[in-house]
Amino acid sequence: MTIRDILTNIRERLQKAGIEDFEYESWVLLEWKLHIDRAEFYMNPNGEVKQELLEELEEVLLKREQRVPLQYLMGECEFMGFDFSVDERVLIPRQDTECLVELAVEDIRNIKTQNRCELNNAEDQKNEQKVKVLDLCTGSGCIGISIAHYKKNTDVELFEISDIALETAEKNIKRNNVSDRVKSYKMDILNEYPKKKYDVVVSNPPYIEKAVIETLQTEVKDYEPRIALDGGEDGLVFYRRITETAHNFLKKGGLLAFEIGYNQGESVRGLMQNDFYDTEVIKDLNDNDRVVIGKL
């Protein structure tokens, strides 16, 4: 079987299995398991492939046909230009979430500028404190770790209820070489809250309505962790709890930034209207409501 035949076979099987982006994934599988990129393919489409590599490809292809997410099969995912380990214990990072990171980074930049303007001399500027960032419901840790990458003047703490998700987050802290500035902790935010205060709080909490979960894409409802999806009957359980308790762990004037579902913008903004100012609903690149922000 030639490389061209193999690629055609992958395409046809993925398309038949209902994989939406079967064309893209075909090339990913070809490069990942057979070590053949597009340039090599076009240089030698009629080349042969070793049997042992074909066996490895077949093993993965069978799982993908069962709709196991490609990122779980590969064990990693790119987010904000960095590589993160992912598995069935955590949600797969999405590009839509990057706008949450970008907003937090911009706010931290403004905090840094303001702080430096208020310091009297170079020695004070040298010794100024780092910006404290909290990532609630962290999962893989991709949000908090990415913030730490882009803003070196931060101390970031990741909180998560799931022990097995925390194992992945801690793996990603080490993988991305930010152990000196990023720490992870177990916490059930629905029943407790952090005991210190932060300059910035970000969260991508579970926000899918319980009744909607079974209608989601197979890769999501059957393979991604239910605990990271279920936002209660109305999808707002975590937003309600975090906004109600934020004064305990967010500094006055500090930023609270949520990722939300496409239809939750005004509902979440409404939860913030009593205790927050400068609230705003922000759209992602697909023009869907994606982030809600406000200052305490």
If you had to describe this structure to a student in words, what would you say it looks like?
With 296 residues, the protein is an alpha/beta fold. The protein is built from twelve helices and nine strands. The strands form two sheets. A seven-stranded mixed β-sheet has the order 5-4-3-6-7-9-8, sandwiched between helices. Strand 8 and strand 9 form a beta hairpin. Helix 1 crosses helix 2. The N and C termini lie far apart (63 Å). The mean pLDDT is 93.
Main attributes of the structure:
two-stranded antiparallel ribbon, 296 residues, alpha/beta, single chain, 19% strand
Quick structural summary:
The protein has 296 residues and is an alpha/beta fold. It is 42% helix and 19% strand. It is elongated.
Helical amount: 40-55%
Q: DSSP strand (E) fraction?
A: 15-25%
Q: Mind describing the biggest β-sheet? A: 7 strands, mixed
Overall mean pLDDT score?
93
Described by the principal axes of the CA atoms, the overall outline is elongated
Distance between the termini: 63 Å
Order of strands across the widest beta sheet?
5-4-3-6-7-9-8
- Work out the radius of gyration: 22 Å
Number of strands: 9
SSE order in H/E notation? HHHHHEEHHEHEHEEHHEHEE
Class per helix and strand makeup: alpha/beta
Distinct helical segment count: 12
